[in-house]
Amino acid sequence: MIRATGHLRTAVWLAEIGLPVLPLRAGKLPFGNCRSCTRSACGGRPNMVAAGPCECPAPCHAWAAATTDLDVLTSPAWARAWRQAGAVAYHPGGAGLTVVDLDSADAVAWARQNLPATKTVATTRGEHWIYRGAMQSANGVRDGVDVKSTMVYARWISPGTGPISALPDTVRALVVKEPAPARPAPGAVTVPAPAGGGACPHRAPAYLERGIAMAEQRITEAPDAIHRTVYRTFLAVLSAHGRCGCLTQDDIDRLFTAAQAKGESLRHCEDAWSNARTKLGV
What we know:
By secondary structure, this protein is of the alpha+beta class. 36% of the residues lie in helices and 14% in strands.
C-alpha cells in the first residue's frame, strides 16, 4: 500500500465519499493508455455510462479509469501517475452527478437567471454548478456552457458551497436542443447511398475494422502536432468510410477515445470531426 500524500490523499478522500477519481497530468489532461491498451488491444472501449470492461491495472482510458477502489488508487501501477499528477479529476456520472460548467461571467449570469440554485464551485474563469442526477454530457450547449456527467471527467477544485439540488429539466433540455453550429455534437454519419445501386463498397466488416484500427494507431503513435494529426485522421476515415453509411457511433467513439487519451479535449475532437465533415461535404 502506498502512503497517500498530495493529490493521492485528495483522491482517497473523494473515493471514500463515493466519487470515482483519476489523476490528471499537467494541463488538466488524462494520462495516455499504456502499451497494452493502445489501439483497443485490451478489448476495452469506454463508450458506455460505467467504466469500460478493460481490467488494466494502470489508469488507462481517460474518464473510464475513474474508480472508488482504494486498492486500485494506491496500487504500484498508479504510483507513477500520482507522482506526475497535476490535478485530480472525478467522473460525475459515475457518482450520479451532473456538472454545469460555466466558463465565463456571462455564462454565470445566465445560470443565475435560468437555473435553480445548487452547490457551486468557483473556477478560474467561472463556476461549476453541481446537481444530483446523471445525464448525457455535451459541450457548447450555449456560449460558455458545457454539461459534464456521463462519459467525461471534471477537475476537482473544492467541495463548493451551498446545498446540492436535484437535476432540473432545464439542464436536461440544454442537451436535447440542437447543438450550436460552431460545435455540433458528434454523431453517426448519415449520407445518401453511393451511386451504382447503393451497394456498400466494404465487402467485409474487416475492411472497416482495419480502417478504424489504423486510425487509432495513427493518433496514438503521433509524437507531436496532435491537433493536426487528429483532424487529418478524421478526414481520412470520413473520406474512406463516411459516404456509404456503415460508419457507426461506436466507430466514432473509438476515434474520440484515442484522441482524448492522447490529450485532445472533447471540444477539439468535436471541432475536428465537424471540420472534416464540412471539408468533405458529408
